[in-house]
Amino acid sequence: MFSKNLVQMRKFLSMTQEELAEKVGVTRQSIAKWEAGDSLPDLEKSKLLAEVLGVSLDELANHEPEDNLGLGLAPKGKYLFGMVTVGDKGQIVIPAKARKIFNISPGDSLVVLGDEDQGMALMKSDYFLNMANMVSKLPRDNG
Fold this sequence. Notes:
mainly alpha; two-stranded antiparallel sheet
């Protein structure tokens, strides 16, 4: 998986092997060998690769497309948690990984935001209310 993830993220960032090699401090041939699966970088180079590519080291080494609806590795901090089914009364079940990452527990309140062009988003209500409170305290331009 490492080699496929390396190729996919390098291409996603529109980088050549030479550009990536320069950022990591290795030769283009080293990058080519890693991408071909002929060898693996040491831990320090692996960490640097992950940093340059904007992904976690764990995801760079272990991401399986099947875990992400067949899609490739996502940039660090971006997630595709899977699909959910809307129940008869509009209820959905938030995937466990999403609940863990965003610290959502039973009984928490969420705000549902919407944009007709971009879709819907969920946000913990306390974060939303804190942000709205801060915005309401900003000085107004009455001109």
